[in-house]
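User: I'm putting together notes for a lab meeting next week and I want to include a structural view of one of the chains we've been expressing. I don't have a solved structure, so I'd like a prediction I can at least talk through. The sequence is below, exactly as it appears in our construct file.
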Amino acid sequence: MTTENGTGSIKIQFAKSLDLGNKNEKQLYVHYKKSLIGSIVLKKKVNLVQLVAPKGVKWDETVKGKAVWSAVENASGYKVQLYKNDSEQGSEVALGTGATSYDFTSQIAESGTYTFSVWATGDSVYGDSEKETSGAYVFSEQTLEDVKTAAQAALQAMTVTNETTADEILQAVQNVITNQKIHASWSDENGFHRTLATDDEDPGKCAETEKCRSRNCNYASRE
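Assistant: Thanks for the context. Below is the predicted structure for the 223-residue chain, given as structure tokens.
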């Protein structure tokens, strides 16, 4: 130990271990002939118990872009990292104690092979686990033909009434688009042309006749 005035050094031997109690460190002051000549900081070295790695690490079978795994006993949380073609995508995500899944769907938009790693995080007693990596998820970017097929199926599944709006129809199409490069919009700035349903006896009456005429509404053309 070097003394405070820097003029020399002394060797100190401890006959027994010092009890640090609940503290991680303790400062020892050294005096010589009633004068303080230096101090030593004693630090507690704790060997952490490493957590086991998560099991059941895989892609969800229903939501393909969702990462899932089994809980690890004594884990204080988890961290996950997404990879595309073995390259990191974004930063690792820190999750809470009870987390056993994370949805990467919004980050998987381009064609490629995706994997993720997950590891349990510890505390002052338990150390982080080893990383466990999932199997591959091969994602193919949605094409225009894919969108057309999905949109047709979505529209056929809709329950359409005389009150159905242009926005509702457009939203149904937008909901099936996963390719961020593809966007849906009406080719006609006025939206769509509506023909009111009737019972074949009462032709019905359009409440917005003038507006319909301005849009060449099929109902208005029959008046």
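A couple of points you could mention at the meeting. The helical segments are 144-157, 166-174, 209-214. Residues 207-223 have pLDDT under 50 and may be disordered.

User: Perfect, that's what I needed.
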